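U., I forgot to send this yesterday:
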Amino acid sequence: MRIGDLAEKSGLSTDTLRYYEKIGLLPRALRDAGGRRVYDETILRWIDFLDRLKATGMGIRDRLRYAELRTKGGASLTERREMLEAHRRKVAGDMAKLTDMLDVLDDKVELYRKMEAGETVDPAFESCARTEHGSQPVVKDQSFDHSTSTRAPADAKSQP
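Result:
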């Protein structure tokens, strides 16, 4: 298939496909007699996998490293597996944090529904200062040495 067909099937633009090829995320395409890129259908599975890695938050550098390792075939299986395991741990941690935040949001929505309905709510919750679900109240560190801070006070005027 030609690059336009691949763009249509993959959902990526032709510019993105060319860029991915240039930086090494996609293998160099074969060329036809006219010099046009020709791709095998199997490239779609690789693009889908790259998209999934991106969707899970894997950065471009790590995807490039993975693509580089992939070109080494069986010699890089262990390193690729370890890389995916490490990324999986990160994704699982991210999911746990997001699940925790969903719980907080659900509780907040329920609180607002009760308040809108005129139900009596604990005054501590009315101020929206709830700190359950693993988060801690924000407390200023009184031991912080402000004399070494490089941050200007909020009302300070800019100096040239």
